[in-house]
Amino acid sequence: MLINITLNQNELEWEVQPHQTLLDILRNKNILSVKNGGCQNGECGSCAVLLDGKPVNSCHILAAQVDGHKIETIEGIGEVLDQGWKKTKGLHPIQIAFMETGAIQCGYCTPAMVLASKHLLEKNNNPSEKEVRDVLSGILCRCTGYTKPVEAVLRAAAFLRGEIVPPIEADYQTPDSLPLDLSQQPGTSPTSSNSNLTTKVFPKISIQQDVKKKTTQVGKPSKKVDAQKLVQGKPSFVADFVGKDTLVAKVLFSPVAHARIKHIDVSKAKALDGVAAVLTYKDIPRVIYSTAGQSDPIPGPLDAFSLDYKVRFVGDRVAFVAAETIEIANQALKLIEVEYEELPTILDMNDAMKPGAVQIHDEPEYVNFADSDPKKNLAAEIRIDIGNVEKGFEEADFILEGDYEVPKVQQAHIEPHVVLTYWDPDDRLVIKSSTQVPFHVRRMLAPVLQLPVRRIRVIKPRIGGGFGGKQEVLVEDVAAHLTIATGRPVIYEYTREDEFVSSRSRHPMRIHLKTGVKNDGTITANEMYALSDTGAYGCHALTVTGNTGHKSMALYVGEGKYRENPNIRFYADVVYTNTPPSGAYRGYGVPQGYWAVERHMEKIARKLKLDSIELRMKNAIRAGEMHPFSTAWSEGREPKPEIIHTVGLEECVNQGKAAIGWDQKYNNPEWRNIPDKPYLKRGIGIATVMQGTAIPYLDMGGASLKMNDDGSFNLLVGATDLGTGSDTVLAQMAAEVLGVDVDDVIVYSSDTDFTPFDVGAYASSTTYISGGAVIRAADKVARRISERAVNMLKAKYPSMEVTPEEIDLFDKKAIAPDGSFVTLKEIALNALHHTDQEQIMAVGSFVSESSPPPFAAQFAEVVVDTNTGQVRVEKLVMAVDSGVIVNPITASGQIEGGMVQALGYAVSEEMVYDENGNAREKDLVDYHIFRADEMPELETIFVQTYEPTHPFGLKAVAEIPLDGVAPAVGNAILDACGANVDSNPATPERVWHALQEK
Amino acid sequence: MITDYKRPKSLQEAHSYINDGWKVLGGGGYISKHQVDFQKVIDLQDLGLSFCKKEKDQLRYGAMTILQEMVECSFTPLELTEIIKKEKSFNIRNAASLAGTLLCADGRSDILAWFMCTGAKFLVNEEMIAIIDYLKSGKKALIEEIQIDLQQTIKYERISRTPDDFTIVGVFLSKNLTNNKMTMVINGLTEKTPLIFKDLDQSNILTDLSDLLKISRSQISTKWSSFEYQNKVINELVSRLLRQF
């Protein structure tokens, strides 16, 4: 049928099929800003368009319905002003505001948010925050926590009202003056403007330690280097690069939790018109590997095959299909006949090691790592003893034991796992993947595909969120096998349901804690046992669970002689079950540990009638002390001692207390009670936490830097920006060293053919490790520039005496002490064209000998309905010591978004399975993630220390916000009503049960 | 899969399609995602069935009125506006029709519970049918409008994990101002349609509650909360609501 529409002011006539959705048609017509991967079920909003000016989800409307209507997409909203000789009308003020305020992280939902904002502001250019949040409620964002998108809309509204709004960086434009005195709270004192607007996108920063050098780029709220393309909805994500001849892949997933495939018949599926290939375990090489994207050697068992004759969970792979269309592929799946010989199942982790339990991994190819033992269903075993725990318990006045439980939860990145594979003209396999670990993908898949590494090229375009989920080599092999089988390009993209039933998720754990304490609060010994459920495969089994103890049990070392020689024990068994595999999820085992440790500390404080904050500070690790685990454990490698140089925890506590009004609220009955609602009680809670920054002696990042004719630079990094802004902070560091603007540094990441190696984006390593590599490369380039500058200056001023060491690179110039200078452009032209021609470029790499921990104090304020158990979180404050903050906007965006993910862990998110191993949560309705219109108040504070192991004094920021929210909420519930919730999330029924047990 | 799509220009034409087995496409949200069950669909967007009117003690919504239009309509009761906003995010509210929303709602829906509790009726073939009766009948007729009697007071309480999350346990109570009888709707417990109890005496509701839940037990799911919790919390919510009447 023909439909007539007006698309971005162009009247068009399109042939459509009655079954096609508007989303299908728009993507087919190359309107790629409309995202097709978020859910395709009307839940996430990333496919939104304006239909007659109103935002609607294009996946939820038939194309036929829009006949006669007007459609707007981001392509019609605005574009970059300067396009060479052509000038456009420029970007829309909303697009500009989104770029300025840091409202864009991964950018997958950005076009939809801009469109929704446009709808609002055309109706009402002076909206309240509540109205903004209501309009944004239709678009789920897993990155930002919505704070900055809301600020962007309010800022754009001021523009559209005709106000002259202050520049976003008004309080930050103080070159050469860092450290900035931010006690005046940036953003609150606009310079020349006629607007009352206050754009609250900057965190408070409390300077704890002075930085060692003045900076012009580091510490500045630089716009994200990729914001411009994302705000225009330019093709950036894997699914945007699909050619017309590309086959669509689908996987037949197991409907049973544990079985051998007795018989599989794919003949009917193969015979279906439009099916290009159907693959089973019989068709591809049987190569055992691990899907965990980690360095060589993989620190875990090898226990997975691309396809196997056995399935180990509902959602495990049975067969691959490639077809001309998704409909044909889905139809083909239904035609595959499988006879399963069902086996006993293990669905509860407690049953995994019981005598007589069925062995989930009985394949002869299984390769152990460390203490894994498939006969015991044991993927990993950890036994760490520091000091003498028994003696510590003997010396304690009081011992508290407790059991805690944490659930399996999903990363829920809005862009699903997606990969596109094809042969290039040189018969090399190209894998274009939304992956956090492109170099690991290449190395790990080479044997699986039986290709040498040199014949595989992995390209990582933009990633639409990862949060650890894309540290897994999860979908790349499917498309690659099918490309090998058919010779054709293949796209494979998970559906939202696939993400829930067949992806990786956070390890659920049952944790027992035993702590010995003196009456004065000194911890004499601390012991944790964690039973961790790795699901059907052992990906990240050892390392995630090791991190649980390594980070959460390292914070409280004791006082006096116990501080000098802490007594800590961490034992863990990581067991296989017939549930979807666990894996990497932002925080990487640490949120699990802190749920137990911080709930436990609160109980100790209350039992001993001690101030809970004083108890924490008394026992917390301090600057100059050794990380207690550093001499005991290192993920299966030889441990080496690490000194912790910077600890801003006490100041974090002080700042956080002030921000949340701790002293006014804690133990204040007047505040706790709510007039006329005696069943509602307010409560306030704290958790203090530490994380890590990369994996010492292992994580390596590389960077290369090349100077261009105009004095700009190409920065090539293997690091992968998942939306965190790491490309931007790397550019800031390079710009700082080279004395140029961030705009002069063109960042490209990453492509295994062109960019240097990097382990990838995980373990909070990018800013620190990849940043270290960038600085090294930049230092080399800067040195060469300085040398050439000396030669040029001497040629110009023969009497001048100057050495390269005396040259200062600043403001795009190489400046001698007497003020004479040559510009970088002159140096570039000289180097490339005039004298002793050379390409000024360098490669740097960096591996750290330490993992300097960031620290944080997390505060939460809740209201509990004491008769129903319903909890509402009203406010979250997080004060974080991440060392020097390279970019306050992107860093605070990390904290805000992280806190909101952690808030789901605290109150709502969990994945539950029935007695047959079927998932209860399969979509974003049952697995609810927070919407813009239901958010508590969020506040971020940075306590700036100077970490001496990094040239710019920084530490990690990305993962720590995941650690403290849940226990702080749990402690606030205890404070409100005396209920101890020991299993998260604190659902109404769990809290209600805890209230009954008081 | 949908093979045919038509936009009738009159109610008469729409009726004839329905008599021929065509299905009504509301906002499109449900049918576009459940195409296996549908082949021929009619789109009622040209029939003028999108309106919000108040006449005496009646509130009338056209069947194709989209939820956001209801939110913006000054006649819409405030609590219904709040309920719609929580249950349906902005983009969905801009596409979903009221009739489609009610027909596709499950037992967790606050919107459906609210309409059931008010005793709202569908106008179908010039006949008024209570929503609950229509849903139970399994009819596939053309709904033209939804009417609500405003001569009543309605209060509700709901329990959820987050403010906008689906309802785990919800109780809606309405009191007919002409006969003082109460209607109670409980949502969150059932897979398909919320539980409804009509013609209740205010003074007996709490004492009868346990029995009412027992007789409904076969319909109640414990997927999201235990029976013990449901019982206790419903009791609490009903007590709170009764204090408001």
Q: How does this structure look, described?
A:
The complex is a heterodimer of chains A (998) and B (245). Chain A contains 25 helices and 34 strands. By secondary structure, chain A is α+β, with helices and mostly antiparallel strands. In chain A, strands 11-13-9-20-17-18-19 form a seven-stranded mixed β-sheet, with helices on both faces. Chain A has a five-stranded mixed β-sheet with strand order 2-1-5-3-4, covered by helices on one side. Chain A has a five-stranded mixed β-sheet with strand order 8-34-33-32-24. In chain A, helix 21 crosses helix 22 (824-834). Among the domains of chain B are: 1-43, Uridine Diphospho-n-acetylenolpyruvylglucosamine Reductase, domain 2; 152-243, 2-Layer Sandwich (Enolase-like, domain 1). Chain B is built from nine helices and twelve strands. The interface between A and B is large, with 51 and 44 residues.
Summarize the structure.
Chain A is α+β, with helices and mostly antiparallel strands and about 1000 residues long. Chain A contains 25 helices and 34 strands. In chain A, helix 3 crosses helix 4 (about 130-135) and helix 23 (about 890-905) packs across helix 24 (about 965-975).
What structural category characterises the helix and strand content of chain A? alpha+beta
Helical proportion of chain A? 25-40%
Number of strands of chain A: 34
* Helicity range of chain B: 25-40%
Please tell me how large the radius of gyration of chain B is: 18 Å
Order of the strands making up the biggest sheet of chain B: 4-5-8-6-7
Major sheet: arrangement of strands of chain A = 11-13-9-20-17-18-19
The biggest sheet of chain A, with number of strands, parallel, antiparallel or mixed sense and barrel status, is:
7 strands, mixed
Total helices of chain B: the number is 9
